[in-house]
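Two entries, shown back to back:
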Amino acid sequence: MNLFGKILVVGVLVMSVLFMGAAMAVWSVNRNYLEANTKLKQLRDSLQNQNRQLQDEQTKLTAQLAVELAAKRRSLARLQNELVALRQDFGTLQAEKAQNVAQTSNANTAMNAMQENIATWRAEMDRLRKQLTDAQLDRDKIFGQLVNLTDFSNQLTAKRDTLVARSLELNAQIAQMRSVLSANNLPLTPEGPEKVDGLVAEVRESYVEISIGKDDGLRIGDTLEVYRGNKYLGRILVERTEPDRAVCKIVKNLQRGYIQRGDNVTTQLKVG
């Protein structure tokens, strides 16, 4: 092969490579165009869908706007009617206000006159109240005196009743003691030591110990009477004496009550 043929072969090879690169470039551009076209179709479809949705939403909003406008018109008409009614009420209230102002003026005049009358009545009431207070003080003073006199009278009545009852009780006890002494053939004023008084110091079964003894003039065999207040309890017999105390035996057949520590004893019991 000569030089021309070699150059031709190399030229064909280079052209083949160039044509192949151009074909690849065309294929790549075509492919990108197809992808771009596909994306444009998808974007167009999406925009068309969004456009339809926006149109539907616009239709709904237009309907809602019409409804709201109709409601607003009705509300406006109602408010206008209320405004007319309020204006009428306002006119009525203004008329009533004028009437009330006139009535208030008349009432103020009447109230001023009434206040003057009240001041006069108040002065009269103060005078009457003072008179009433003075009368109440006098009444309370008289009532207090009456209460004191009534209490004093009740106390005197109670004391009188107590004294009468005590007198009757003492008379009954005296009569009973006289009957007991007479039944036992005992004198009303028995002989013995001079009148000596003492107390029961101890009680032991049938014996008692008393607070008076030999130094007080007691002797063995003497008798003493036992009593508590106005109640006669019985007789005791001296069996042992000491200077300041004595032991006595209770006379059972003359005992009229339970003898206990602290009861009174005496050598001479005044009867009658």
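entry 2 starts here
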Amino acid sequence: MRAADFDFHLPAELVAQAPAPNRDDSRLMVLRRHSGSIEHRQFPDLLEYLKPKDVLVLNNSRVIPARLRGLNEKSGGQFELFLLEEIRPNDWWVMLRPGKRARPGTRIVLRNPDGSPAPISATVLEKNSEGHRRVAFEGTTNILTRIDELGEVPLPPYIARPDRAQLDEDRERYQTTFAEFPGSVAAPTAGLHFTKALLDQIRARGVKVSFVTLHVGLGTFAPVKSEHLAEHTMHEERYQISDATAEAIRDAKAEGGRVFAVGTTTLRLLESVANETGGNVVAGAGRTRIFIYPPYKFKLVDVLLTNFHLPRSTLVMLVSAFAAPGKTTGREIILAAYAEAVRQRYRFYSYGDAMLIA
């Protein structure tokens, strides 16, 4: 299949620039994948689609304030550093802007939010084939202990923040209520809709609520640039699945329950583990670069809760695969659902509305 097959028109005004007033105020489109029928609901109505013995699996990775700002020690030129992946403490791969000025040996003095110099610097060590820089931080034993005071919320590029005061609200809202383990540079956005009260209501219905950890990378938002999908190289992400979650999923399957994956990150983790174990789920840690697109036969996940995704992104390809497992017709189902979402003025992307594919 070609990347262009997953393009679609989206009016700019439907890209959500702010979260709903309350987390669960979002709308919910329910897509019945076997019939293609669509229902328009509100997010709390999710309760009606869950049954006792089901297991709801959420990604509890915590978003770090990954965007840092600094000045070239010699020229005074401004830099933006976006943390991508930790190699070891104070040794990171980052995205640097402007990249042309970030030659090896360049020393960047970090800035506090008020613009004053911080006692921390970053020295560029090398550049990789993707254009990312490896930097060494100095002035702190571990930059992760300082980013809460220095860093900004790593909002995706399609969310504009002309008023920096809005970033204070983003620190809370661009984070799930159940976030626990720091490491993501983008939010697992399907989880943003859940309140603690709603999760308690779900548990009260006899549904097991379990968690996995997949640290979301910046590549989540990257469009596929290769003409043919088979030529695309997927970004790699770290994951962890606990004994308790693995057991809960095995029990649900054995008792006739369903596995509800909250978000494409959760689904990718579960399917990665299932691919390695012949369809089972076991505890452990690892890395995945699984790229799911039509046709794909899902081994573990039965229902997917997700948001509305970018054109030509790996995520719209994933949901197309889920809409018609093992077939190539899911693209037409998803593009038709997205066209309906546009007509009904659903809000798209990270702070947008939700879709349940069942």
